[in-house]
Amino acid sequence: MSGLCLGTLVVEAGEKSGALITAQMALEQNREVFAIPGSILSSNSLGTNRLIQEGAKLVTNYKDILEELNLMTAEHQIEMKELIPPTETEAILLKQVGTEPTHIDEICRAAGLPAATVSSTLAMMELKGMIKHMGAMTYTLAREVREDYRVEVE
Questions:
Q1: Bridge partner list, 32
Q2: What own/partner pairs with CB < 8 Å and gap ≥ 24 does 64-72 have?
Q3: pTM for the structure as a whole
Q4: Most buried of the four, 38, 81, 152, 153, by CB within 10 Å?
Q5: Domain extents in the chain
């Protein structure tokens, strides 16, 4: 099941639970793992609380998942991709940005482009949902670029 989705949400799990096995499979398949925290007094929350301790994304509402999977602005990103055609500069920069945060200075050096060009192109790429600004002038590939999937927007 974990291989068919973008992420796995564990709502409740005991210390030895099938949900924990599914979460482990999701990690092995490079999928996101989300967990809803539970009471420290409940044996049915031991697994979810441990997942959070080990790095699972803590979820308090559905928006946490949509934001992490970069789906909050999907409609806007689709519109921007249609309005603004791809450029050669974007293709060059996509090769310099990976799944780990990369500082803009490093992107400029690797691409051999001026900072102004890189900065403005990265801003447009972020509007299109191609990359994600992680803060402190670092960027990563957005999920849409890392994984080939479609989002139906109504």
A1: 7
A2: 64/34, 65/7, 65/9, 65/34, 68/7, 68/32, 68/34, 69/6, 69/7, 69/32, 69/143, 70/129, 70/132, 70/142, 70/143, 70/144, 71/151
A3: 0.51
A4: 38
A5: 2-68, 74-146
The contacts of residue 103 (CB under 8 Å, 6+ apart) are 136, 137, 138
Whether the CB-CB separation of 131 and 139 falls below 8 Å is answered with: yes
CATH 1.10.10.10 fits 74-146, yes or no: yes
Q: What is the pLDDT of residues 61-119, one digit of tens each?
A: 888 888 887 776 666 666 666 666 678 998 899 899 988 899 999 999 999 999 999 99
For domain 2-68, the CATH class is alpha beta
The dihedral formed by the CA atoms of 33, 62, 53 and 137, expressed in degrees to the nearest 10: 80
Q: Kindly give, in sequence order, each residue whose CB lies less than 8 Å from that of residue 126, ignoring residues fewer than 6 positions away.
A: 132, 133, 139
